[in-house]
Description:
The complex is a heterodimer. By secondary structure, chain A is mainly α. Chain A has helices at residues 7-21, 23-26, 30-55, 63-80, 85-107, 112-131, 133-138, 164-186, 189-199, 201-206, 211-237, 247-260, 267-281, 288-303, 307-312, 320-328, 330-340; strands spanning 153-154, 157-158. Chain A has a single domain (7-340), classed as ABC transporter involved in vitamin B12 uptake, BtuC (Orthogonal Bundle). The two termini of chain A are 31 Å apart. Chain B has two domains: 1-77 and 153-238, P-loop containing nucleotide triphosphate hydrolases (Rossmann fold, 3-Layer(aba) Sandwich); 86-151, no CATH class. Helix content of chain B is 38%, strand content 25%. In chain B, strands 6-7-8-3-9-10 form a six-stranded mixed beta sheet, with helices on both faces. A four-stranded antiparallel beta sheet of chain B has the order 2-1-4-5, covered by helices on one side. In chain B, 49% of the residues are buried. Magnesium ion binds next to helix 1 of chain B.
Amino acid sequence: MIMKLTKDLKVLLLIYLILLLVPIFVHTDLYLMNILIMCLIWSVVAASWDLIMGFSGIFTFGQIAFFVIGAYSSAILTQTFDLSPWLGMPFGGVVAGLTGLLVGLPCLRLKGAYVALVTFAVHMILAPLLKSDLGRALGTGGSQGILTIKPMHFWGYSFSSMEPLPWFYTALFISLLCLLAVYRIIHSNWGLAFTAIRDAEPFAKSLGINGFKYKLVVFGITSFLTGIIGGFYAHYVGVLSTRILGLNLFLILMVMLVIGGLGRFPGAVIGAYLATFLSEWLRPMGNYRMLIFGGLVVLLVVYMPQGIAEILFPQDKPGPLERIRRRVFPKERRASLSNDS
Amino acid sequence: MSLKCSHISKQFGRLKAVDTLNFEVQTGEIFGIAGPNGAGKTTLFNMITGMYTYSGSIAFDGRELNGLPAYRICRAGIARTFQIPQLFASLSVSDNIRAGAHFGSRRNKPEAETIEEIIDFVGLGEHRDHKAAHLKLLDKKLAMIGAALATHPRLLLLDEPIAGLNPSEITQSLELFYRINQELGITILIIEHFMKVLTELSQQLLILENGKKVCLGPPHEVTRDQRVIECYLGEDHD
Ligand SMILES: Nc1ncnc2c1ncn2[C@@H]1O[C@H](COP(=O)(O)OP(=O)(O)OP(=O)(O)O)[C@@H](O)[C@H]1O
Ligand SMILES: [Mg+2]
């Protein structure tokens, strides 16, 4: 089926069109290009998390764990068998996706806060596991981590850290594919089932929706997508350690979702960009950075619970652009109104 | 025979919410269920639709339902509504109905066609694209019934479907139930507190109290039963 060109999709494509051109102006700025690439990476993690938490109402906190699993899997596979990162990334996605299914299984019978606890436990277990002898045997490098991860390549050309453009456009391409997948799922019958289960589970079941199946599906898909982009991250950054499992990233990711608004695609994508930049700007503040981020989560949840998506594209009233258009073209508005009725 | 419940019981801790109940519902009829608050009526619906585990046997057109998950029971041809209206609040009316048509129906009929038919049938045309959360009570109930009908059931369970409605809305709803029964040929099981509505609507009436059958039979017999008058009509009848 062809994708319907809804407002959500138009916004996403517009963003990608702008991103496509941005390097023309800033491609010499390594620092800025790096932030942009990180924006693209985190947008996939945030959108996946939003698919399971926002659209499906399953309160998981395992997204970073799946990201890290994807990253390590891709790094280890490409290292051990001397394979291309282009194979490593989907492999990372598959390993993360299978882990997601495994974590999803016990969560099927649990509700709300308990799912959060189980998935957070997975997050907490992961660091010691990667550092353990078992992890070392698998090639995680123990506490030291993995220090030499293959860079990406394309037709024999190997990407270098001094040239951000190939990295950027690869990230642009992969993230767009992942986000289009998320969009496609939201607007499919799967998406209908996810949201139905979120809104009223007994009603959904009474209408023939297999709750178990679709909860498992959403666990699998979101961890798969997160794992793929985790794989890309590993090859881009070139080193991996359990440090990314710390609370900093966790908090920043939460800010992404809260800024974007839960269940408001592509809100999480915009949230990811804003939070990534914010996090960079606040870096000079040292330890206060996380204090500010924590405070921000609280403030946003209280005063802007629907996120930026509700401000940019409100669901039940005209958005800012529409309001400006109506003010500028009042007649057109009347004409279009009479057409509608 | 359409639905046959044999020795079914449901226990919550010490409470026997449904206590070794037996009854049969015939194909094509409207079967009323009444009883005081806490009698076990909703619990009975939750058992039939696979929302609870229980002991005993429930057979639908000869097929045993005990042990089937809720979604399979829907696909076997049993749909229901809920006492407290349940809807997919963030979705439009037509998407609510689409969920039933897509996941619950086993007929090879284009979804879009089913949705249009149902929206017409329950009379929600002007609310088609409205979010379910913004509907008024009657329309919520109609949308819930519409989604249930979209699964193409042979048996429809209605749990206090007219509670909270005003008289004209009640008339409208009752007409709809008749049409569901007559035009669509769907067997209906209906829980209702208003005895008058049930005596008019149903061919058989089951009175429950404390999870037990007090009386079962045609309405005119049941309303004359001394035990029914004591346990039920005494307080609620006006
Ligand atoms: N999930 C549950 N857990 C424990 N007890 C329950 C549960 N569901 C119902 N009960 C108890 O079982 C009894 C029957 O409840 P049920 O909801 O079936 O009554 P009802 O006949 O539908 O009443 P009403 O007319 O108020 O809707 C009540 O005492 C209720 O408190
Ligand atoms: Mg009840």
